[in-house]
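cache lookup: miss for this entity combination. No prior model stored, computing from scratch. Input as submitted by user K.M.:
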Amino acid sequence: MTITESPRYDVLERAAYTALGGVADPELDEPITDLGFVRSLVVRSAGSLAEVEVHLRLPTSFCSPNFAYLMASDAKDVLTSLPWTGLVTVQLDDHHDSGLINAGLAADAGYRGTFGHEAEQDLEELRTTFRRKAHTAAMERCLTALLRAEPDRPVERLGEVVLADLPTDRHTEALLRRRTVLGLPDRPDALVLVDHDGQGYAESDVPLALRRARSTRISIDGNAHFCRGLLRTRYPGSESEQVHRPDGAESADASYDPTFIPLPTVPKEQRR
Amino acid sequence: MYTSNGESYFVVDAHIALWDGRPENQRNLHGKQFIDCFYDYHRNLSPETEVWSYEDYLYQGGERLMKDLFADGYVDHAIFQPAFLGEFYHRGFGQTEEAFALASAHPDKLTYNHNFDPRNGEAGLDQLRADAERFGLKGVKLYTAEWHGDSRGWRLDDPWAYRYFEVCRELGITNIHVHKGPTIRPLDRDAFDVKDIDHVATDFTDLNFVVEHCGLPRLEDFCWIATQEPNVHAGLAVAMPFIHTRPKYFGQIIGELLYWIGEDRIQFSSDYALWTPKWLVEAFAAFEIPAELSEYAPLTVAQKKKILGLNAAKMYGLEVPAELRLPDADETATGPRGADESDLVKA
């Protein structure tokens, strides 16, 4: 975590910030701390407990209010569950629903209590949908990496790949974490290409399943970088709060991300 | 027309606006937030040389539009796709009278599409009939996330929307452009899928549904639906400028669209005045799928010509010089076209 090196916060604030690292933007599949969504964090001692005030910021005024609410209420939950916190205030700044969301959070009104008739769907359903997408994307990253490393491997046979066939790297680790969240097995002989219920695919269905997974991965990576870029445009200086995202990174990211190392571009004919 | 490397392209900018986001037209904070959000998109994705001042961005007027599109921007024909946003702006965001007057003065260059809102009920149906006659409508732009009193959105498969589509069918308004993209959304109603497109495309097979922003930020949902519905098309508004800072992402979007829906159903647009077409047209004609994306075949000149203009020209019945025309690809009506794969085989 970058926070341990940050001079911005004291010990309790760091602990609070670390806790916020457990809150993810469901659509971008990334912690709000890595995305730079935490605008400020202040801890004040109040007797035996401490008061915490957090301000969150998002890339646009019109970010989807259900996601905004989800992140803000998760932030409040993780801070409230710390043993040393008393009053926890989470405020969402500069959003078209700031007033509504902040009032709902202050009153612990819940999602439906905050949005009334507009909240047709349960937040847990929303969360589940995006956990499945995150798994799909992680699976595709592993299998495409395998294909690129072994271009002669027939795509149709990817349905036979098991976890033990994957290298030990960050893609595989990320896949295992997302499988755990969905309750999918992590045995070495478990199939990699599965749907969210753990079902594999017939050989003839594998190419299409991989293509679908690919479009999911492209969506998530593309959105993540677009949102990060918009946040930097909207809040100059916020780049210093963003943690490098290797998935979907491009050369242009080097200009603000000092940890970015562009991959060498190898012409196709040399690779094949 | 744009000519580069001996190839000429007939350019149709299929999604433009003549907007007024100036403070005197802003009804409330949302009006300011809306244009500011657009301006952030503009600043974030444009090359430095193409970034406008905030003042310039708030309002352009017809003269500047004509210069940016036709004198400087290589555009042969452009189509207005106005958003009303009456809850945010006193006189609406898209300027109906100004845009229609401009289109009437330059019928060879501009087509005026208007909008409707099914929450206006019977009165709105009468208005649609009047608008169709007055503007000679071939298409409409629908904004399902539009606010309207207590409602912050509607769906294309709402029963009232169906009544409007039936009237579109009756009036010959065949091209239905639907905003499905980033920025303002109602809550759960369309927060993460384009399912309502699936329903209407199946029930109104004689109408074309152009999904603007090709479903971004949920490209995969769009692709999955569009691949099954032959009358669903991808509009590249807001996707285009990724060509500059995020060429890999742009290459992946194009690669996926070619695979899932094929080269005949993708339409270029600058989304003016979010961006100007000049640099986008130049960049697209010169664009190649980055070599490291070995899962995609190269983008062909014919595919670029179709995307830059021929596809929209066909949908709107625009006259294209004979030497610039191309035949449709020989692709399946439904299911993945695999346009990139078939090209690999040919190569």
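stored under new cache key. Chain B has a mean pLDDT of 92.
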